[in-house]
# Entry
Amino acid sequence: MDGEGFDEQVAGIAALDHPLSRRVYRAVLQAGEASRDEVAAAVETARSVAAFHLDKLEDAGLLACRFERVSGRSGPGAGRPAKLYRRADREIELSLPPRRYDLAAAMLADAVSRADRAAVPLGSALAEAAGERGEQLGRAHAREHRRDALATVKAILEANGYEPRRIGTALALLNCPFHHLAEEHRALVCGMNKDFLTGVVKGAGAQDALSARLAPEAGYCCVRVERN
# Structure
């Protein structure tokens, strides 16, 4: 996870650190959409206090808003539109150490669809799905980096839930983004991880210099990226 993404996630969670902020947030969720006056009445506080917490949650990306006249009148004398708050579409998920179960789910779902559609073994479909997903990610991020192959792949992995540590000419991974899945289905998930990282290396244009290999070792992810 890159520093900016981590900071945004922490800020979003921290916005709920105050008990009244949490009550205000729950009041909006229960109403679906609510004005400052409605939230103030629901949590039994002053309108100005409710507005402060609502705007704090909006700034953190937890709430979204729109303006609408709720009086039913229009034209001169109808009053100012009310600010209506609702839950934002943004998803905030923070895990320490970083995990990417959403990525694993996407690759597994893609594999099931491929296997069903093409009548191929699920393992083959998963290897293909993971490789393609990694290649897309590597290609997209490689445009942002103009470094040597190992540094480019390291930056890509850091932005996507891995914690790569450079050891000599290799990248050892301190964190497995699919840890709990790997604990229960090691062969399947470690193979998927290797295929995904192979795709990342290829997408980054580093396949002539680097390879992802299974290299289980205590305290590290089962895959390492090494120079050829």
Notes: The chain has two domains: 3-87, 101-227. The mean pLDDT is 84. Residues 210 and 228 are 5 Å apart (CA to CA). Strands lie at 34-35, 63-68, 82-87, 164-167, 170-173, 210-214, 223-227.
